[in-house]
């Protein structure tokens, strides 16, 4: 028996937001906007970040609205299209109720993030009990280890983290990089995030992994310069943070930056060039990791 009705509408970039709001006002419980050309040669990648001018939606956006099964989903959707000037016919299908928890969990499996380190969801058994297994539940904060930028930073920590190093994870999200640093032998680890939910998630994840790390907001950070500053954020915030992160890094220390597209790497390096000399970057799936050494 269907518990939900889903309506899909293809709209232009300018109308997608208005249409989404009209569908929600008409009784939709959720609305999702995606690239109508996904999976074709015309698929259009969008990378939005603070301070960057990016289109609000794809040129052809598929607006998918979920309605209760007993609602007039098709009628509501047609009226929303007329009100928003969208000349498109909505398509409706039934969505049966499912075990959403199980389906969500099936999307996440143990992941070997680096030669010694695995990221293992708490409901899974570690594939290699002898490895360093970081237990992590996907949650509100960014960082499950699966994104290329997180993986690139985890790889660097495994291969280059000095024994007993002091580390600051700036923009810690789920705390995955800070926790990995602890497991890999760092002795003084701090995580910073502007989102209180991320700070709370990081503290809980650190406790679940039995490691000691301090997590706080930017205004609460009180630490001397450290050997390693890792920041997996986005290119524009990283550029703005360059003077601050330089003060957090001791002479001879490393700054490890990701959340940067290959096309953005030169401008990020220029922002840090007054303080750091950079090694060759490492790329994965269009993203890069930048590694710089703090000059004396």
How would you characterize the overall build of this protein?
This protein has helices spanning 13-25, 73-84, 100-106, 148-160, 176-183, 196-208, 235-248, 265-272, and strands spanning 2-12, 30-35, 60-68, 91-96, 111-112, 117-120, 132-135, 166-170, 188-192, 214-216, 226-232, 249-261, 276-278, 282-284, 287-294. By secondary structure, it is an alpha/beta fold. Strands 8, 9, 10, 11, 12, 13, 14 and 15 form an eight-stranded mixed beta sheet that branches. The chain has a four-stranded antiparallel beta sheet with strand order 2-3-1-4, with helices on one face. The chain has a three-stranded mixed beta sheet with strand order 5-6-7, covered by helices on one side. α1 (13-25) packs across α2 and α4 (148-160) runs parallel beside α5. It is elongated, with a radius of gyration of 22 Å. The model has no long low-confidence stretch (mean pLDDT 88).
